[in-house]
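Record format v2
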Amino acid sequence: MNIHVAMAAVLCLALAPLATHARDIPSVPQAGKAAHSEREATTDHGTLEALKGPFKNGPEVTKACLSCHNTAGHQVMKSIHWTWEAKNPTIDKTLGKKLVANNFCGSILSNESRCTSCHAGYGWTDKNFDFSNQENVDCLACHDTTGTYRKFSTNAGHPLYEDIDSFEPMEGPPGAKSFKAPDLTNIAQHVGPSGRSNCGNCHFNGGGGDAVKHGDLDSSLKNPPKELDVHMAKDGANMVCSDCHTFNSHQPSGSRYAATAKDPHGLDLPRNDHNQATCESCHSSSPHQQARLNMHTGKLACQTCHIPAFARGGVATKTLWDWSTAGKRDANGKPLFIKDDHGHLKYSAAKGDFAYGENVRPEYKWYNGVVHQLTFTDRIDDTKVLELNRVEGSAQDPNARIWPFKVMLGKQAYDTENKTLVVNHVYGDDDTSLWKNYDFSKSIQAGMDYAGLPYSGKFGFIETRMNWFITHMVAPKEKAVPCAECHMRGEQGRLAAITDLYLPGRDRNRWVDLFGTLAIVGAIGGSTVHGLIRILTRRRKENAQ
Amino acid sequence: MSAERIYIYKRYERFWHWSQALLIIAMMVTGFEVHGSYHLLGFGQAVHWHSLAAWTLLVIWAFTIFWQFTTGEWRQYLPSLQNIPAMIRFYAYGIFKGEHSPYHKTAAQKHNPLQRLTYLALLAVISPLIWGSGLLYLFYAEWGNFGLDKYLSLEWVAVTHTLGAFLITAFFFVHVYLTTTGHTVFAHIKAMITGWEEIEENSKH
C-alpha cells in the first residue's frame, strides 16, 4: 500500500516530507486484559462492618456507603445523572431531561414516578423532590456487580422491596408478570466499578424499553459479539462504557447537548483532562495506515464509516411514533393493542402507532456539536415538519464533520394557538392521565397545569423529527462502509443528502463531461471516417489498375 | 520494391513508450471509474491502482527526462512551423490519393512537423493540466498545512483533472489510429516494437 509513498521519495525529494508526514500512525490501542472492570479491588466490601445489613431500602444502603465514601454523594449530586439538567454552552440554554421535549413520551413532568425509574436517586415522585438530600442518591444502580439490582419501572427510582406476584403496566399491553425484590444486602456487599449492564439498565432502555430510543444502544450490548461492537465484545477489547465515558468525580464524559463533533486534541495523555469520550482520544486523528483514509478524518466522523448500520444486535429500535392515533378501542370497548409478525407492538391505544427497524442505515448530516434542542417554552413553526433538535454544521464549518444519525419520526401534540409543544400527562393513577383515560384534552391540560406553562386549551398534532447521533456499535474494520457506498452517483449513495461538497465518484461538471465526451466521440468518429475513406480510395485505385 | 531499414527508436525509448502506454491505459480505465462513469474494480481499488500507476509513471518520467537531456533527444520536440501546410494537405487529401508522406523520417528527425506540434501541446498543456491537478488531488489532506486550502477547491482540482483526462483520452484514440498511416497498417507499431523502421525506397523524393 505504501509503495507509492516510497516512490515519491525516489522521484522527488521535495515531495517526500509531504508523503511521509501522513505516516505518523499509532497502532490500534490494545485493551482487554486491563479492562477497567477486571482490575483487582483493594477493598472487599463483603467484609465491611457498615455493609452487614440487613438493608430494608435503598436510602439505607446509601447511608452505609456514605459512611466511608463521604464525598461521593455530593459529587453525584452535581452530575447530570442526578440533576437531569445540563447547561448547553453553545446555545446558552439550560437543557436536560427535566426540560427538553422529545418525540417519545414527551416530558418527564407530571410523569415522574414512571420516568425517574432511571434517575440515579430514590423518590423523585414529583417536582418537589429534594435534590439536596444525599441519602436519596442511588449508589447501587451504577455499582452493583451481581447483575441482580433493578430499579422498578414505576417506583420513582426505588427497587422493589417486596416481591410482586402480578404487575400489569398501566400503558399495556394487557398481561401481568411477577417481579422479585432484589437482595439489597447481598448487592451492597458486592459493589464495584460499573459494567456494561449497570449503564445499560437505563441507557439501553431509553424511551421506555429495550432499544426504543437510541438505535445504537440496546440490550445486545451487554455481551455483544465482536461483529456488533469491537470495543465491548469479550473477544474484542472487552471494554465497559466508562472506559470511554470516563468519570471524573462522578461526572461522566460525553454529552448529547454539547458533543465533541471533532476532537482537535487527538490522543489523550494522562496529564490531559481524562475525557476520553471521543474516538480520537485513543485512536488519534490519523488512525489509518493508508494516508488516503486519513484524508477523510477532517470531514467525516469516525462513526460515519465504522458504524455501517444501527440496531444490528437483533433488537429492533423504534423509528416512528405517531401519538395522533392513540385512544382506539376494540369492538368490546377495550383499549386496542396490535402486534406485528415479530411480536412488536405496532399499535397501542395508550401511545399510538409505531414502526421499528433493524440494521438501519443511518442518515448523514453535518454536525459541529451545536444542537438546537427545543423546550416547552420555545415558539414553534407549525407550517412544516418540526425538528426538535436541529444539529448545526456545513461543509464550510471547520468544526463540523459528517455524522451518522438515527432520525426518529414522530407526530405529537402541540398547542395550536400558542404554538408551543405541550407537556402530556401520560402516567398516573388519576382521572387525567392519558394511559388511564385515553383523553388528550384532559392529559395535556393536566400536564401543562402541572408544569405551570400557558396553554390555550386547543391542541393539534405536528410531525416532528429528532436526531440521535450514532456512536456505539462500532463494527470490525473489515465491516466499515465500503468506499463506493458514498463515492457513487445517484440517490442510493449514502451521502446523497450532503450536497455542499464535491464528492469524487458522485459529482462532476456537466459542461466538462459534455465537452470531453464530444472530444472522445469526435476522435473516434473522425479516425473511423478518415480510415474508411482511405480504404475506399485504395480499393478504387486497385480496381482501376 | 526494396526497403531501407533505419534504427529509429532506441531501447529505452521503446521501453518508455510501451510502459507509458500501459500505465496511461490503466489510468484511463481506473480514472473514469473514479469519475463514476462505470463500475469495474470498485471505487476504492480504482483509486488505489490509479494512484499507483501515477507514481510509477512519474518515476519513469524522471528517468525519461534524464534520458532526453543526456541523449539530446529533447530536440525532437522543438516545434517547427515549416511544412505544416504540406502535412495537413497530406492527411486531408494526399493520403487518399495514395501519395506518400511528404515527410522523410530519419533517426535525427523522427517526428513530422505535425507530430512535433502535437507532442509539444501534450507536454506544455495537457501534461501540466493533468499532473498539476493530479498531484494536488493526491495531496488534498496537506492543503491546510501549506495554506493552499484558501485558494483551491476540491471541485476545481477534480474538474480540471477530468478535463485533462478527456483530452488525453481523445488524443489516445487519434494517436492509435494514426499508427496505421505508415506504408503498411502496422509499420509504425512494428517500428515502435523493434526500433527499426522500414523506409520505402521509392518514397524518397
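Residues 43-71 of chain B form the longest helix (29 residues).
Chain B touches chain A through 49 residues (CB under 8 Å).
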